Description:
The chain is α/β, with parallel strands linked by helices. It is built from 17 helices and 10 strands. A hairpin with a 5-residue loop joins strand 5 (371-372) and strand 6. The longest helix is centred in the middle third of the chain and has 32 residues, at 257-288.
Amino acid sequence: MSEKKSEKEQGSKPPPQGSSKKGDKPKKPTLSRQERVARAKAKQLQNQGGSQQQQGGGGGGSTKQNQQQGGGSGGSSTTKQTQQQQGQQHQGGGAAKQPQRGGPASKQGQEGSVPVLAQFDDPSKRKKVHKKQILPLQLSKKQVQLFSHLPQYEGGASVGITIESKHLHPDIVKLGILYHNRIIQGSHARAAALLMALKTVLMEYEPSLEKTFAVDLDNKLKPIIQYLTDSRPISIGMGNVIKFFKTKIGQTIHMPLAEAKEFLIQEIETFIQERITAADEVIAKHGVSKITDGDVILTYGSSHCVETMIKKAFDMGKKFKVIIVDSRPLFEGKVLLKRLIKHGLDCTYVLLTGLSYMLRSVSKVFLGAHAMLSNGAMVSRVGSAVVAMMAHAFNVPVIVVTQTYKFTERVQLDSICFNELDDPDKLVTSFTLKGYKELPNLKIVNMIYDVTPIENVTLVITEVGMIPPTSVPVVLREYRADITRI
């Protein structure tokens, strides 16, 4: 009776998209039905006149099919029908130029790329950031328009480091000054220093009587993070460390005060021991296997992991040479050069402008990383992308040496959408540029990082082994509890 009734109600309409029997698989729509839906959609879009109405039209079509088919099978049939309409709407005119992906996602796609981070060129978001700031920061008036979405302050990342009635631990204040003055630099050293400072804060912490330990500690952690961010934007590795610490705080909700403090201190010490100290030794052991007698190794800037690996290979009696490439304005390579020469290695020092001449005799390139993105790209000190690209052109393998706590699920294709801008005055060394602030048509950009695409990275050496850059998301998935969720 139900089948006869449904046929009578449909009349001259084309057969339904799915089977009328419950449990049967939905059938593919006929061509006439597709043409009819596509033409109706195109006509509706013309009448409504807007891309946002396109989403409503698609939803209306799905609702009509659900009413005709009904039951649980109608939902799956509607999904297939929607997918087939998206692929074949070219038959119905220009309505298929913009893909339909459903409510909010489609609206964001029409308005532009979905912002992953707060865009600093948005006045409302910039105002929210300024409300949270602890330090008196003034935006630079000589900022390049292309990088207006990134914060750049007068005099560098921070001016006039003061507490201003904010009750911060002295070690945190000291750490912020060290970050700001670049006395502690490098994502590895910054993350380790942050963990040690948090450990000191915990040991001297006295909770409030009105709030529980976890809630009160989390509230006191916010101004600490904001102060360090004002001193210098936190690195990706530091961000993962903060996530790790906050997760561990959440596990102390039902613990007594003494037990909770001891638990957090122990977790910090374990993280330092396993993810930093022991990881450096394991990475050096893996990296030494890639160095053979007669090699000419090239590195850029100064990396703690690369330095440890090179010294270990030299101590094992391997004969090789090291070329250190350096660039302005930090000249980090000079620090590495002094340490390696003191250790007894045969070194050559060259600026980035002479890279192409040195690569003719290089057998391997080792680079440190600020972070490894989930698409296999590497974020490192500015100039690393040039070194990797030139090495790739000379068919020289590029090996990245880093710890897994620097892995992130973020995806980045260029160095513009996310970066850190340093003080432009550090690039002003000649008499010509000294008066650039008075020249309205002259602006200076001092970028800290750049992005090396996956095509220019040969191998990634971590404490979990030597992996290709395509395996970064695999490591993120397998070690999610210790790397990202942390």
